[in-house]
Amino acid sequence: MVDSTAAATDHPTVPLQPMTVPAQEAEARCRSFHDVMARRRTVRDYDRRPVPDGVIDWAIRTAATAPSGAHVQPWRFVVITDPERKRRLREAAEAEEREFYAHRASPEWLAALAPIGTDWHKPFLEDAPAVIVVFEVHKGPHTPRPYYTKESVGIAVGLLLAALHQAGLATLTHTPSPMKFLNEVCERPAEERAAYVIPVGYPADGASVPDLRRKELTEVLVRL
After folding, report:
1. Which of 135, 147, 146, 157 is nearest to 65 (CA)?
2. pTM to 2 decimal places
3. Which fold has domain 42-204?
4. Mean per-residue pLDDT for 121-146?
């Protein structure tokens, strides 16, 4: 039997510093955050003006606060702003997307995408002033084995999108398949596997988005 007291002392702890929110304010804070996030939309038309210094760094710091399996933190965020590298990224991504739309996607999948109006053209990969490529970090010569990698990285990306939206920036989650070309474009080792490509910037003047409806709370919430 393991002595829980002894085991606890083997791992240092620090006092929790919880947020203190009066009960009467809790719902209002949730509602306020919802009202901001409800305006978040996937954007495909970008202005080329640069993102203010420090914004992306702080957004990634926020993303890196996400919980992760065994606290391995299996993520890497590669920020691309160099025009030539963005051009290479777009060309490689569009090559994969042409195959997807012409041969890989099922008719059912293409029908589901039709209301969004997407195709293989990905100009936002060059137009957006920054592109963040998010990699899952798997076991390698200098990296430990991760646990619940996809779940951990997915939570981190959710925080990243929320932080960038709070800063008034638009984003898009692009997931070309397969993604191995991103290791070459981003000069990353084999143990890192690309999971998301996220253009970041300000919406272009006159940008529009599909007229889509989000599910109502009654459609997504189950109380037991």
Report:
1. 157
2. 0.93
3. NADH Oxidase (3.40.109)
4. 97
